[in-house]
Amino acid sequence: MLAEFNWSQAAASPVMIVLMLCSVVAFGVAAERAWFYSKRRGNAGAVARDAIRLIHLNNLTEAAHVCRTAAHPVGPVAATLFERKGENVASIEERVHVALSQQKLLLERNLNVLGTLAAVAPLLGLLGTVWGIMRAFHDMAQVGSAAPSVVAAGVSEALVTTAAGLVVAVPALILYNHFARRMNVMLTIAENETLLVRNEMNSASKNASGSGGRPSIEREKSSQDASHAPSPAQA
């Protein structure tokens, strides 16, 4: 049945041409996003562990380099923790939020195209249905007969465009949901691992300040004891 169908006549429909263009655009966007997400795929936990290990060794420069060279979004986000633009909590949180927003913009680029095609393609198929029915009635009016051979071309065009709209819309919707889910997961992991790195940095800085403060206190006490000790002449 499919071999006997006149595909060239159905493809000549304006709506069908638009649907074929939509399918090409959807395939191109899906391929580009799949390639981009594969490049950003990485072990976020390993990046955070390496950075934490270097922080404990007090090698912040190398820890920042590990974060900046990471492929996963956790790298650029965690790298903002090593920027010395402000040490207060509000400034650090603001830098992290800005970095997360930048990564979100990169990850969701062109996803709106897939979402739009998933919503518009069924409507275009419905438009093709109306177009085909109008063509069938036009042929009936010209011939003056309602024979099946007269209306078959218009009805087939209506059904084919409806099916084509669904064929374009269903994969586009599936791909859109898939990439949106991957984006949310990657951003959540990046935020969580960055929080772990930040907590380790705070703990390391507190330990360093605490260990560095004890000798000075001991020296101050020893100097005070020496000043209060009686001199040999007084003895």
Features:
235 residues; 8 helices; rod-shaped; single chain; disordered C terminus; mainly alpha
Explain the layout of strands and helices.
Blueprint: H1 7-11, H2 14-40, H3 44-56, H4 60-68, H5 74-79, H6 89-107, H7 111-143, H8 148-228
Helix pairs in contact: 2-7, 2-8, 3-4, 3-8, 6-8, 7-8
Describe this structure in words.
The protein is mainly α. The protein has one domain (about 5-220). The protein has helices at about 5-10, 15-40, 45-55, 60-70, 75-80, 90-105, 110-145, 150-230. α2 (about 15-40) runs antiparallel to α7, α2 packs parallel to α8 and α6 packs antiparallel against α8. The longest helix has about 80 residues, at about 150-230. Mean pLDDT is about 80; it is low at about 1-5 and about 215-235.
